[in-house]
Amino acid sequence: MTRVKTVESQSRRLVQQQAWGDAVWHVWGEAGAHKLPLVLLHGGSGSWTHWVSNVTHLAKQHVVWALDLPGFGDSSLPPSVRDADDLAPYVAQILASTFGEQSVDVVGFSFGGLTAGLVAAQSPTTIRRLYLVGVPGLGLMREALPMRGMLPEMTDAQRAAVHRHNLRVMMLSDECAIDDELINLQERNVARDNMRRRKIARTDILLKVQHLWQCPVHGIWGEKDALYQSNLQKIPEVLTRLNSFHLIANAGHWVAYEQPHAFHLVLDQLLANQVSKD
Predict the structure, then answer these.
(1) Cα separation of 208 and 229, whole Å?
(2) pLDDT at 274
(3) What is the block-wise mean pLDDT of the chain (278 residues), using blocks of 10 residues?
(4) Which pTM value belongs to this model?
(5) How far is CA 144 from the centre of its chain?
């Protein structure tokens, strides 16, 4: 059994029927006196599997709710949704239908963090605390990464080589972290991406809405994030609403996957500190 299958087998898969289609959650951990919901939102062309290295650890202290964002993974794409700004109201709706009036802690990676930041601006009472992981929308991204595309005539081996290349140049800093299982995960996720040609990530949209945030906001980045490179130190300068900013060594954009232990040390401490203040 692959690691994804093993981790998934430990979860509860919940399908919520919304007016526009299905919203699919995977949930780890049992509710207890001190266990609060922790919502995880994955990156673009992803699914809950972006958190495959993290959910079982986080479920020791929290009830972990990993959403397949609408248009990704097993969740339906709402009509007329083309990017994160269109998506945010639907995510707010999902959170409200799942947790009622209870505000929840949200960890958003990349596109998922961008979406969460827009939700926090549009529906301030929905998110209690926001943890942004390698998010775009800050006006600091590189012009372009040397990504490769697929061609219809490619063989399976050639397609796998494209996924390996794209994982290396965008997601991970260490090529040794890319194995056949990860390539298969990537291939399955990309095949279910129904929101292609997203553009808002390259704008500074989060900078324009951060004044609307009413919750504590913390940032976690890999120090080798290919989306930012030399601009990493500028993030807390422009994202002025951050309560804290953390860089994790030897990690690229997909920091929670590449350096899970270091990522957990930072996130666990942030979550514990916030709980102690309640």
Answers:
(1) 22
(2) 62
(3) 92 96 96 84 98 97 97 97 97 97 97 98 97 97 85 94 96 96 96 92 97 98 93 96 98 98 98 66
(4) 0.96
(5) 21
Q: What is the 3-state secondary structure (H, E, C) of 188-237?
A: HHHHCCCCCCCCHHHCCHHHHHHHHCCCCEEEEEECCCCCCHHHHHHHHH
Q: Where are the domains of the chain?
A: 3-145+198-277
Tokens of 69: 């964002």
- Fold annotation for 3-145+198-277: Rossmann fold (3.40.50)
Question: Residue 242 is inside which H or E element, if any?
Answer: none
As given in the structure block, the two tokens for residue 162 are: 């494209």
Residue 83 corresponds to which amino acid? Answer: D
Token readout for 14 is 């919940």
Burial class of residue 47, CB neighbours in 10 A (0-12, 13-18, 19+): buried
Phi/psi at 174 (nearest 5 deg)? -115, 115
Judge whether 229 and 222 are in contact, CB under 8 Å.
no
Q: Phi/psi of residue 149, each to 5°?
A: -105, 170
Which among 25, 23, 37, 42 has a CA at the least distance from the CA of 93? 23
Number of neighbouring beta carbons within 10 Å of residue 77: 18
Phi (first) and psi of residue 219, to 5 degrees: -120, 140
Strand 12-18 vs strand 62-68: parallel, antiparallel, or unpaired?
unpaired
> What pLDDT is attached to residue 255?
98
pLDDT at 276: 45
